[in-house]
Write a structure and sequence with these properties.
By secondary structure, the protein is α+β, with helices and mostly antiparallel strands. The protein is built from six helices and 21 strands. The strands form five sheets. A six-stranded antiparallel beta barrel has the order 2-10-13-12-11-14. A four-stranded antiparallel sheet has the order 3-9-8-5, with no helix packed on it. The chain has a three-stranded mixed sheet with strand order 20-1-21, covered by helices on one side.
Amino acid sequence: MSDKKTEETKNQALEITLTEEGKKPKKEKKPKKEKKPLDKAARKKRRRIAAVIVLAIAAGALVVKNRMGGEGPQAYVSTTQSLVGEIEQTINTSGTVTTEKTKSYFSDVNVKIESVSVAAGDAVNSGDVLISYNADEIAKEKQLANLKTQSADGSYRNSLQSNNQKLGDLNEANINIEVLDQQIAETEARINNLENWIEKKKSDLAYEGALLQISILDWQNQPDSEEYMNLQKLVQLNSYEQQNNEEIKGWQEEIDAQNKVLSELKEYRSEMKSQKSSAEAGQMTSGAKAELEANTRTQQLEAADSLESLTAAEGGVVTEVNAVEGGSLAAGSQLLKLESTQDVMVRITVTKYDLDKIAIGQNATITIGSKEYQGKVSKINKMAEKNNSGAAVVGTEIKITNPDSDVILGVEAKVIISTAQEKGAVLIPVTAVNVDMGGEFVYVVENGILVKKPVVTGISSDTMVQVTEGLGEGEQVVLDVTPALVEGMTVMAMPQ
């Protein structure tokens, strides 16, 4: 009976609406205005207004129905279907355009500056003249450079000649030391053999004398015998031989001669050792030789250069000029500074909330003025710093991969970093996800009943979030959750 009344009420409301529309007078058709596509903010605003109107109508219908005693849902809820699609997670921020490469130009000569062709802020190309020098002073400087070249060349040749001599001394010393070592070893061995022969000869004579002494003892009772007398003579001869043996004397003389030779060999070997040490110490290393060659070549190049002007080595923007027309700077002083516009980046800061999302190599879109460029995350600092609000932030650099002449250093640029992408993901609006003590959850409508489902979310965009667990495609997800909604209650889904 209640359903019948509800249906009659709806029909009456429809008839009233049609009747009212029928009473309206026909208006003259006006020329249609050209419709412009709504931007993102306008579309979102229109959807919110439409949702409020729909909910208001639904709430009014619910009140009317309740007053008429009808039975129906306990609440009307705005819903949307979970869908499967692609989602991209981004970090939207801004930063300052700056260069990756700064080159300072220094004065090579101490001469007067004729003219300065650039000022701070000027853009220059590779090969453009930056500074011109006074011609008369340059001529003198060139003459001085030529003299320096001659001096460097002479020093180079002298060093090479000295080095070659040292190499010859080193080779001679190495060869002689090897020969001397062998001769010393042979001489020492000869001396050792002679000493052994002398010792053996002396030992033999001493043994012979001992035997004679024993024989005399056998004949001492017959001192007048011929045998005794002969033994006495032999003992005397043996004693004399031990003191004056010609063979021993000859060997000893040879030992003395060999010791003299040995002393001379060792002295010569010591000289060769000293020569080797001196040659090694004075020998030019490969690094020293390369440095000497480079210095000589540098002097030659400087002499060959006209030095009439200073030109830009690459394109960029002049950010600092120290040179003044008519003035002069000492050699080695900075003339100007040039920042490259070919190697440029945007320096941004990242908060702790985005730090786990960003990584080196991620793609980025950079907007400078009205122009868009591509970029990549090239550096993430390993130390945090404080921003103007006192919060800890991490400096990050985004390299612009397609710079052009329109890039202006020092301006602010908008940066969108693509931190993650997923295809075939289950997606729902961010506003549909809620959190309680049990974690994240969503409400879905199943057969007119409100069901609470725990979910696990993944990456998110500004409006949508990925659901990795707990939800499938095509489910009616409640968009706006209020304290009045309770799991298990009867609801009417209002799809958006």
